[in-house]
TrEMBL record:
Transmembrane segments: none annotated. Residues 22-145 form the MOSC domain. Residues 13-50 are annotated as: Disordered. It holds the Pfam family MOSC. One of its GO terms (molecular function) is pyridoxal phosphate binding. InterPro entries: MoCF_Sase_C, MOSC_domain, Pyrv_Knase-like_insert_dom_sf. This is MOSC domain-containing protein.
Length: 160
């Protein structure tokens, strides 16, 4: 049986909280941290919010530009929203990440467009932590690996 694979469509960084995301052709992932130069990489190591992965179809369905949902990695061809916490993915030939939990939409989305908070429920992407660092590039393949059986299973909050 073939392992589902997809493609990295965009990589984005924001150096500080509240600043716009900047699209980059490649990013350096650091184990237990996230991307070099991104605000989440500066936080405490081994946190659950090192990267935000987003399915390209989500931003397209929500009529948003790349980066407006504060995503770090935009993917296509991977059923991201249906994957469980603990699912491991290979990003390119070096980087391995593990999904930690779905990203819950926050009230800041209402600044982009009234109603976006509810509209984006279930389409906000997945948070991930970096298990193995390295360089990742736009256009790299994304492959599903194994699922960590010991990963915490988050409780999905209900729509407000």
């Amino acid at each position: 049986m073939d392992t589902p694979s997809g493609t990295i469509r965009a990589l984005l960084l924001a150096q500080e909280r509240g600043t716009p995301m900047k699209r980059v052709p490649e990013a350096q992932a650091v184990e237990g941290r996230g991307f070099v130069g991104d605000r989440h990489g500066k936080k405490k190591p081994n946190g659950k919010r090192q990267l935000l992965l987003l399915d390209a179809s989500s931003s397209e369905a929500l009529r948003l530009s790349v980066g407006e949902l504060k995503e770090n990695v935009v993917l296509s061809g991977v059923p991201l929203e249906s994957l469980p916490a603990g699912q491991r993915l290979a990003l390119g030939g070096e980087v391995v990440v593990e999904l930690t939990e779905p990203c819950v939409p926050c009230s800041k989305l209402e600044r982009l467009r009234p109603g976006l908070l509810k509209e984006s429920w279930g389409q906000r992407g997945q948070l991930a932590r970096v298990l193995r660092g390295g360089t990742v590039r736009e256009g790299d393949e994304v492959r599903l690996l194994d699922v960590n059986p010991d990963a915490p299973r988050p409780i999905r909050p209900k729509l407000p």
